[in-house]
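User: Predict the structure for this protein chain, please.
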Amino acid sequence: MSSRYPSNPSGAEWKQIKHMFDRFQFVEHDLRTILNGILCVPKGGIQWRMLPNEFPPWRAAHYHFRQWQMLNPFQRLCDRIRRAARVAEGRRLSPSAAVASRPVGPNCPTRWTGARPRSEQASQRARGDT
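Assistant: Here is the predicted structure, written as structure tokens:
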């Protein structure tokens, strides 16, 4: 491929992720050009059919994207990148604590305001009670 797109992984990035796709076989198109085409779609905000001619045909890129979506290598890739970033910052691989909170605010449906639940109000209106 002659052009360099912002969505294309660099050489160092490619070395870290290419082994994740070793079990797949590619007959017509190179793995790297397929992956570059797949990454171009969300980064460029384009539709599959608008994939530039420098990439494999959109049907081939979309086919492999759907296959990989079912096998979930992109989630594993994100997990790997997250762990590497945590180690680079001197933190543990996994977070040691989590923050769980419930929504609080004036528009929060779980906050008690003294009013009856909406479903109760609707059923009373339907019956004619107010």
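Helices lie at 11-17, 31-44, 58-71, 73-88, 118-127.
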